[in-house]
Amino acid sequence: MDFNFYLPKVNLLFGKGVSVKISEEIKKLGDQPARQGINGRALLVTGKTSMEQSGFTQKITSHLKNHLIEVTLFNKITPNPTSELVDEGAKVALKNNCNIIIGLGGGSAMDAAKAIAIVAGHSKDQFQPIWDFSQSQAAPKAITSQTLPIIAITSSSGTGSHVTRFSVITNPNLNHKVGIYSEYIFPKLSVVDLEILTYMPPALTAESGVDVLTHCLEGLVSKSCNPITEEMALQGIELVFNYLTDAFRNGENLKSREGMALADTYAGFVITTSRVILPHAMSHPISAFYPNISHGAALAALTPHIMQFNIEKGDNTTLQKYCLASGAMGRRTFGANKYEAMKSVEAVKELLEKIGMNKGLQELGVDPADIGDMVKNAIETGQGPINSNPAEVKESDIARIYKLAMGKDRR
After folding, report:
1. Cis before 368 (ω within 30)
2. Which of 45, 81, 273, 398 could cross-link 113 (Cys pair, CB 3.0–4.6 Å)?
3. Using one digit for the tens of pLDDT, what is the confidence trace for 59-90?
4. Is the pLDDT of residue 410 over 60?
């Protein structure tokens, strides 16, 4: 058996209230020796409202200052962070001589923090915009060890960004949403504080939970999957089916939050050591053209159709993988054939209905007239995921799947 397993390079801190234990790690990452009693200068990257309203922005800031760590707040992060916003945050970091970047929030905050760390770390002599590092460029600039150290404190169980080497950034001028990746943007410390996660509203719980599920499903059937990734993916799928519905309905249940947080961490490891496939290649153009449509909602509309496409067009290994997924979803299977593999599609549809995520693209606000542009965008920006899909994908297949995903009735 031959395979390559890419070991994630993250120090993980997991549990209730653990976010106030980060100062010792930050002290290790700051300037040595300490400058005038200051152990570090951190840029705290977060959103405009949720972390502030829940009190965690102030709580983290106070904790850091009490341990002689300077804090500059950059609280402008919005869903689908843009290249302009990242460059603005990097300029703030440079102006304040920040040597550590902390992302506090959901995937958008952590993605932005990673991208800001790249720009600020590589702009000591001349400013280097984040899009220059984008893999959508013909010759992207290299991401090196000059990247500032990153700490990721996640407020959602969804993107897996707290343990990955990926940052997803949108260029609104090009309508491109692409992944930027490097071993140098693995967070030095990843913090999963269950106390923060209990503040997730039901809608965000559902949307981010879909992202967890699709990361595991896609990594499982990806051409890059290996035996270790497969086990983590199946464990993540099982956790999602055991805990997502209850976390959606009863957000204060710590056991359900813990289960989804663990699933999200598994999912992050999965996409780091395997990779995402067609659903992510097709969902990013939706977010690029329609920034108000959440990543999770786009994935929910697309995933059942793409699963069915892969089952119809895939080989025996693909069928076996979807049958394994069916088992992790609590469905008994007998053998590995298309009929048994389709049980996974039906299970996903039922879960989406339970958490209110069974909406088609048109109901979400996508104009069918934009399908042609989205197909072109998916091909331009999603070649990696498309090539990793277990079934061969043609341009006409992408257009057909977008059309199928438009309707409300996804059965």
Report:
1. no
2. 45
3. 999 999 998 889 999 999 998 899 999 999 99
4. no
